Amino acid sequence: xxxxxxxxxxxxxxxxxxxxxxxxxxxxxxxxxxxxxxxxxxxxxxxxxxxxxxxxxxxxxxxxxxxxxxxxxxxxxxxxxxxxx
Length: 85
Prior knowledge:
By secondary structure, the protein is an alpha+beta fold.
């Protein structure tokens, strides 16, 4: 799993300017949910980025979702995004 998170971080770093990122796997919190699948992840991103903070919240989230578009189609079921400076 660490390699997968490293790949996500590198993909984001390649496309978005940020100072720090924390990727948290919250999948275990959703095991009882109707749409839960052990093959899909529920992730939380905590991103420190002066660049993303300069954008509207909607535009910042859209940018992150665009960068992770393939992962969202295949491996990530839910993505919580928190951006701070």
